[in-house]
Amino acid sequence: MLETLRNAWRIPDLRKKILYTLLMLLIYRLVGVIPVPGIDLTKVSSTIEQFSLLGFMNMMTGGSLSQMSVMAMGITPYINASIILQLLTVAIPALERLSKEGPEGRKKITEYTRYTTVILAFIQAVGLVYAMHASAKSGFVSYVVIGLSMAAGTSLAMWIGERITENGIGNGISLLIFAGIVSNLFNWSVSGVSGLFQGTVSWFVFIAIILGALIMIVAVTFVDMGERRVPVQYAKRMVGRKMYGGQSTHIPMKVNSTGVLPLIFAFSMMQFPGTIFAFFPQSGISIWWNNFTSGGFYQIVLALLIVGFTFFYTSITFNPVDISKNMQQYGGTIPGIRQGKPTSDYLSRVSNRLTLFGAIFLAVLATLPTLMTNLAGMRVPFAASSMLIAVSVAIETMRQLESQMLMRHYKGFL
To answer: What digits encode the pLDDT tens for the residues 10-34?
Structure first.
């Protein structure tokens, strides 16, 4: 990675893109310290400590949520708006036709996504502040000012992400999330070092957490880049007067093809009952749920849900029957496997084995931070999903830099 950055820095065009990206990220972090007027921060901090879902959102925004700055909502409304528009594109024929009209249609859908982002940011900001009772002043005008301030911050974050994608090294929205996660780790490191000199943090615990984080980064990197390449041989065939085929290729099957989605689904499902029960803090079911989440059985249920969601999402995204039909249509065969159902059965077996390994890896990755917290007695500054997102974004950014350098080498030959 360091070699890639060093080579990219030597190219003037890429150097300008890297500096532009760093400048926009710096602006994003500086704006993130501007507070929203009329917020009671004591109620915000106490509420975030009660709900792990809010703690996860705070980690993704780099601590902006706990400070209730204008960037408290982060880029989350934009992600939600993009998902909503993608689902509506499948459900509404007018949007589906618009998506097939080329660049102009995609430009129009992007415009709709921006409008939806601003509306969602305003609604989510007002709802979040109202649910936490964090407004220092009651009244309609106070909530409108808070909602508009946070919606403006989300709009600015969306604009920064799009500018990084167009004029920087690309992948702007993901880089904003990456910046939030890395800044949260940096804040924890600073507080941990100060705790070491003050005697409130043990050297053994601090070093153990650092080593655990490094091991998780290495493991996530290997699994994220790992893939099983199924060889495919295409037979030669005559089309008119030309002969096609005859080459050997492969089907790349990633070890972790689902990414971070099973973790998000499982965490959301396990955190939803706690959010409902929090409205009845003195009830028996709320007390039982608090005892359940603090025990080891909660981690077992969470791991089983991650495994189940991994297999479910893989079954939706990977269809071995369709792949087998496409291979048979174009004369492709897997060496030693007959075409048709034997090919689909073989691909299904390979996919199930890879999915099982990926599911177990994600389950271990999700429960490891909690285990480290219980053993060390100190809050771990990272979650499984945030670690997976940060490593995936870093790897994808390096791939984009390498592809841009390769393109410029080809341009020199031409």
So the answer is: 778 888 888 898 899 899 888 888 8
With b for 16 or more beta-carbon neighbours within 10 A and e for fewer, the 279-302 pattern comes to eeeeeeebeebeeebeeeebbeeb
Q: What is the pTM of this model?
A: 0.72
C-alpha distance from residue 327 to each of 43, 138, 320 (Å): 59, 64, 10
Q: Residue 256: CB partners within 8 Å, gap ≥ 6?
A: 223, 224, 226, 358, 361, 362
3-state secondary structure 89-131: HHHCHHHHHHHCCCHHHHHHHHHHHHHHHHHHHHHHHHHHHHH
Q: Which of 83-92, 206-215, 238-247, 390-399 has the lowest mean pLDDT?
A: 238-247
* C-alpha span between 257 and 311 (Å, rounded): 10
CA-to-CA dists, residue 186 to 45, 59, 181, 193, angstroms: 19, 12, 9, 11
The C-alpha atoms of residue 227 and residue 257 are separated, in whole angstroms, by: 9
d(CA 387, CA 404): 26
3-state class (DSSP) for residue 227: strand
What 3-state DSSP class applies to 387?
helix
Region 173-181 average pLDDT: 81
Q: How far is the C-alpha of 82 from the C-alpha of 57, rounded, in Å?
A: 18
Position of tokens 């097939």? Answer: 100
Strand order in the sheet with 332-333: 248-254, 227-234, 332-333
DSSP secondary structure letters along 272-303: HHHHHHTTSTTSHHHHHHHHHHTSHHHHHHHH
Specify the pLDDT at position 413: 42
Among 176-180, 217-221, 270-274, 359-363, the range scoring the smallest mean pLDDT is 270-274
How many other C-beta atoms can be found within 10 angstroms of the C-beta atom of residue 407? 10
Cα Dmax for the chain? 81
Residue 141 has pLDDT above 60, yes or no: yes
Q: Say what the pLDDT of residue 23 is.
A: 92
Joined tokens for residue 349: 């077996």
What is the identity of the amino acid at 120?
A: L
Given a contact cutoff of 8 angstroms between Cβ atoms, the answer to whether 38 and 146 are in contact is yes
- Beta pairing partners, 69: 35
